[in-house]
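Sorry to interrupt, but I need a hand with the structure work. Can you supply me with one protein entry, sequence and fold together? No commentary is needed, just the two lines. Leave the record below and I will have a look.
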Amino acid sequence: MLTEISKSDKIGLGYRIFFEGAKRIVMLYFNFKSHQITLLLLLPIFICVNSAHAGWSTPRRISEVAAGYYPQIIAQGDTLHMVYINEIVPARICYRRSTDAGQTWSQRKVLMDTLNTGSPLNPHIIRWGIKLIALWLAYIRNQVYPYNIGYATSTNDGTSWSVPRYVLSPNIDWPFQFAVSNYNSLVNIIAECTAINDSAYYSDIRSTNFGQSWSVPQPMVYQFHNGIPDMANYNTNFYFIWDGNLSTSQTYEIRCNKSSNGGISWSEDFILSDSDQFHSQLPSITATAVSIICTWMDYKYSPYIDMGDILLRQSPDSGQSWSSIEQVTFDHFAWGSDIASMGDTLAVAWEDQNLDNGYGSIYCIKSTNGGQSWDEPFWVDGDTGYSRNTSIACVNGKIYLIWYDMQLPDSAGVYFSRYDFEQDAVQDNNNDNMPDKMSLSAYPNPFNSSVNIIYSSKKGGEIKIYSISGQLLRGFNVEAAEDGIVVWDGKNNSGKRVTSGTYLMRFLSDGTSKTFKLVYLK
């Protein structure tokens, strides 16, 4: 059954809001090709399929039953943090964590005020060491202007949380989208706001003390329409990516604004997608020392009106130049995507709407050479229940993937799967449950002139390069960093270039160590 609803520009463009009942699912989404909002009533027919596959763990539910809209995950070492929406009345923002790479998860913690606020949307979570901030769009009851950005903080790695607080003063009068990213204690929120004349614009809101106080919103870019934004940073370089247009004569395109000074000032927006007659939307972005990579869904190759393909573009030089656009998927069934990276490994997850798989499945594709080539896409959830809202993280040689899976009513919820992709990453036994979460990787690997050694450590330490026989060749003293980088030029301590072959790099920090293989090819 299809029911057409008249278009309203004030409904959050790009949203798809789902309401689950005992016998049917109601799906609301905006059709960017026909410019209509369509309500679909689908009778759920679910057939479970075993998704076991080398490298991927069997998907399992990690939330309470029938809860888990818009889950978000971040990872630091073996500790994972997740926020999500529990829509069971009263709706609430919830948090869970795992300290053993996803094997076990903590009990749910409710972060929002369920008495005075309701209908939360758009959860996010960021970290600075063991400090965390969870943020969400809050609807405050009995207010003339009821919307704000709610947030709660933790200073002990998610063990306990503060009472909820609010970023804006005063509230605003309409729902909006926002994105958030941080470098240590510096946090940037870019939120859609609405002016008195009903025009929409993005504003930057900053905190230099990790959420203890917030600046007054500063208008950044005005737009005619917009969808769902994303933001990432490497050090004080921040990248804000969004889909939208600046006038009615334009199609939706993927636009990016960059700040090189931690959000004090921003560049003019520039378009990353092709400026053509086809809409580009639902962007995602990640930033590392190696590259800035963004993905989005594009209709340009699709014969369908409500799904397309995932495209990708990356910058190797902090956004100064960008590669040509790369097509990641080819069957035209893709919707929203998320991307994560570590060194030369990229992982892209997306919601696939192929009816053969239940009109909503989670797929993931990965590259171990910076996107030069890709493995075959893998159907991660492996069932024909409607799965959506994927979120991905990549750290310590593992891919972590979560999503909301609408299986039978007694098993729906947030599902989790893990992929161990770095077979060369060796962790010492004494690393287990250490408080200092470390990571180590290298790009490119193999290398033929120099290699970027990428590390994270709260306390710094030493990175040493050894021959396969154990001879020390080169050493680097490194400071504490979340995304540190050291360049090895293939020379030993005497300045002589080593021969081609396999080498070991070892990172030692406060009694903890990690070892990683390097391959040098002249």
Q: What stands out?
A: Residues 1-52, 423-435 have pLDDT under 50 and may be disordered.
